[in-house]
Amino acid sequence: MRRASLVALAASLIAGAALWPTAARASFHFIMITEVFAGTAAAPDAQFIELQMYSGGQNQVATHSVVVYDAAGVQQATFTFTGNVPNGTDQAYVLIATPEAEDAFGVQADLEMTPVIGAQGGKVCWEPALMIDCVSWGSYSAGASDQGGNATGTPFNQTTGLVPGQSMTRKTAGGETPKLDEGDDTNDSAADFESATPTPVPNAADDQPGPSVKQHARTITLDLSGDIDARGRATAKDGFERCRARAPVSVQRKRGGRWTTVETTRTNRKGRYDVHLPNAPGSYRAKATPFMATDSDECSAATSSTERA
């Protein structure tokens, strides 16, 4: 074969090879982790991880995995998709959730997981072997070994970890558009995320218009007596009854400068609760955990004043 033909063939092969990675990236690479939720004080097993596409055609997720690590970087669990998800439109979501989260939020996960997210510190990765995307929070300390798409920078909420009842939610103001795009990932979890109301969205629900959600602000009181009985009442400021009845409540005691839940309960039909606590002196408070009363009514979090016992 003449030299000119060999050169032309080589150029053709190189050009073709350059297209292979692009073709491979067209199926599941343009996906980021957008929410990590470690449950609430009353329902710690209601956990989920949400992924979001920032390009079309990213629904070929079969055989690919989400991996959860603890604060030391030790792998806790791998959750692998056995099939693709149907919706591959730009900005579509993919939901990995525990059965408890499915029940709490009334959603059907695209992949079920077990409750292995440690609120105090950890890391979650979407396909870590391919270095696509990883995020960390709290006391995660294995960052020196992270690189490429596995790099997470400073963990989100480094001193407190994940807030009970709140999601670690990716900001979308860092890119060129208000929607999720490549500029929203700087490989620094502290800069890329914020605490927000959890909003798990399964893949099949993406093309369905959702109802607008009304927020109902609430208050909660705490009264301590005896050795020790905690009583109080949760109310919605606008009088919405479903935000007071059977509402989850956590009673917390301050230990070493941090609030720790010592008892959980629910209000009765009139919004009142009454629970017996261990007889330990200290500062106490009550927290009303946020929850969805209906598909379009969200009962906000509320915290009582601090009481001494």
Task: Tell me what the structure shows.
The chain has helices spanning 3-24, 99-105, 189-192; strands at 31-37, 48-53, 65-70, 75-80, 93-97, 111-112, 121-126, 133-138, 167-170, 193-196, 214-216, 218-220, 223-225, 229-236, 248-255, 258-266, 272-276, 283-288, 291-294, 297-299, 302-303, 307-308. The protein has 309 residues and is mostly beta strands. The longest helix is centred in the first third of the chain and has 22 residues, at 3-24. 11% of the residues lie in helices and 35% in strands. Residues 1-25 and 206-210 have low confidence and may be disordered. The radius of gyration is 23 Å and the shape is globular.
Descriptive keywords:
disordered N terminus, 3 helices, mainly beta, 22 strands, five-stranded antiparallel sheet, six-stranded mixed sheet, about 35% strand, about 10% helix, about 300 residues
| Average pLDDT number | 86
Sheet of most strands = 6 strands, mixed
Strand residue percentage: 25-35%
Categorize the overall geometry.
globular
Total number of helices: 3
Summing up helix and strand content along with how strands pair, one would put the structural category as mainly beta
- Rg (C-alpha, Å): 23 Å
- Which stretches are low in confidence, meaning pLDDT under 50 for 5 or more residues running? 1-25, 206-210
How many E strands? 22
Strand order, largest beta sheet: 6-5-2-1-9-10
Q: How many angstroms separate the termini?
A: 93 Å
- SSE string, helix = H, strand = E? HEEEEEHEEEEHEEEEEEEEEEEEE
Helix content: 10-25%
